[in-house]
Specification:
This protein has three helices and three strands; from the N terminus they run αααβββ. By secondary structure, the protein is an alpha+beta fold.
């Protein structure tokens, strides 16, 4: 005995009830970790670029005529503290270096950036900024 056409559609619809929930869960299981991974990568790259910018700024500041490398390290710590957080500014050092044969200043920033969530295991970053010293007039 076969069902009339309207009865077949009702029986097929009943069999597929709840399948939207399963489809949603299967898609969310893939998309949420992907989205969180992209956000975390963006966070790490933002911190890295900010540290590079602060190190370069500190080196340029220390390379002026009336400044010392220690002044550049202080300026770098200040830049990092204002831009992201003071905890990334703990490993700042500065000193003289030769830049293409000319006297210069190098600022090094060592920091640990969380690579998995805000409190997860950390990735160690080391960035440098260089600048040629200004000549005294």
């Amino acid at each position: 005995m076969t069902l009339p056409p309207e009865d077949e559609s009702r029986s097929v619809g009943c069999a597929e009830q709840g399948s939207a929930v399963v489809d949603f869960v299967l898609v969310v299981v893939v998309l949420v970790p992907l989205f969180l991974g992209i956000v975390q990568l963006a966070l790490v790259l933002h911190v890295r670029n900010t540290l590079i910018s602060a190190a370069s700024e500190g080196a340029r500041y220390a390379a002026t005529v009336d400044r010392s490398p220690d002044d550049g390290a202080v300026r770098t710590r200040q830049q990092i503290s204002e831009a992201i957080a003071g905890r990334f500014a703990s490993g700042v050092s500065a000193g003289p270096v030769a830049v293409h044969g000319a006297p210069g200043v190098r600022v090094v920033v060592d920091a640990e950036v969380p690579a998995l969530g805000l409190w997860g295991p950390a990735v160690r970053l080391s960035v440098e900024g260089h600048a040629v010293e200004e000549a005294a007039p």
